[in-house]
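Issue: copy button drops trailing tokens. Both records pasted manually instead:
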Amino acid sequence: MGSAESSERNGNNNSTTSITTYEEGKDELKDMAKVAVAVAGAAAAAYGVCSILASINNKEEEDGPMMKAPGQNGVYIKRIDIENDPAVYFKGNRGK
């Protein structure tokens, strides 16, 4: 075995190692991308849930407390509407 044969063998072996390392690196990068997409999806879902819950809470605060409407089964109204002027509420409610 001459020095040329030895360096050819080392050269081929190194290029095979480089290709294997490159392919492994590509696979590892794909796996990392999948994890990043999964984490981003989970974060977006959590943000969506938090936004929905916050908007529900804000809506209740804006509308004020609710109460069961007098004389109407299963209907809820804003408490402030009847507290401000009950006569108007009951007048509009007659004949329903």
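Record 2 (pasted manually too):
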Amino acid sequence: MEVHIQTRKLIKPSTPTPNHLRDLKLSWFDQITPATYGSFVFFFPADRCISTSNKDERLEKLENSLSEVLTRFYPLAGRFDLDRNAIDCSDQGAEYLEARVNANLNQFILDELDPKLLNHLVPFPNELFFSPTVLAVQINKCDCGGLAIGVNLQHKFADGYTLFTLIRRWATCCRIGADRVECLSFETGSLLPAATYTAMHKIPVPEDNSEKLVTKRFIFTATAISALKAQAIAMGGELKSQQPSRVQVLIALIWKARIAVAQAKQGSLRNSLQIFPYNFRGKTALPIPPNAAGNLFRNVIVRFTADGDRKLELKHLVNLVGKEIRHAAESFAKAEQAEDLILSATDSSREIHEEIIKGNTDICVLTSMCRFPYYEADFGWGKPAWIASAHKPLEFVLLMDTRSNGGIEAWVTLDPSNMLQFEQDPDILAYSCKPAQYFSQWSSAAVNKL
């Protein structure tokens, strides 16, 4: 696959940002977050009813609407000033690229191309690359006539909610105009200030192992997830009264497979931590707006201890995950001051750092983007056929909803030898399917249109 960059420019807000908004302080949670990029690609199939000239109009509308939406999302057109832990919102502009790609969308969707190639559909292929640029966008025109909109958004200021809200608001602006765009709140720097609390135990920027790792996709249909939940509940214990969510059981299933991979490699069960973020918007007594931008999450830590003859059972891991999720929810519900949230996050970070230093516990990192309405991003030519992540520089699991029918797509990045064992795990084989198998359920006409 070849990607030819045809246009590179800066898109500035259509209306200048007022002087009193030009300095945005980062919150405490932003400051402990590593300066890496979050990357996603939104795939839109060709509409065979659109003429060539109208296809060019799509690019013009995307560019103009981005400029308009940046007026409301003004920090994303700014530049980081890490020495001051702030964003200079002086309208320097978001990076904007247009590219020609000699590939068809269905080659990506059906997993015919290496997932590493997805990284070339965003402006910054390496998510660990640091730039003071907050937002960068790449519009990829494919041979099939479809578009792939690649987005890099700096994690130092934006979590998944912030990124996907931006995309949906941009899509709304492009489709029906800027007047219908709802703004995000950029108040978290004052609500959760860093000046009062020392940002200790920052989440470190991971070592770049991109070239050593492989990424594969595993799709769990709604039917498979229901069967998995039924199996876990049938095993007894607390699960009969505490109905696990589909994300909870998938976290446990994938974690179980990774523990088994480590056991096969080491010859015995090892201690393991499963870490995943918990979004606390709307879950505390603090006056944090539900539409607040920034990093508003705390890492949940679930601990598996390899005690003697303990068996590695799914029901046990589902219980552990559920208990920690409930504990996090109770902790946030009791939080009445910013200090309560910050101390809770500090404790989590300290626990992770201590285990990394000891070196006798495996660390498994996962993020769930399920239930975010990213498939609602309609720019005026229909909703995306598929949304892709990117190949990661560390061993990592990302969960995303399938486009319809309640399934979940797991993006798994592992060392090649670990991946070989992971994909042969009996439960992974039993409950997941490969993309080509899953999308074969589509009509051939629908797939060929991509």
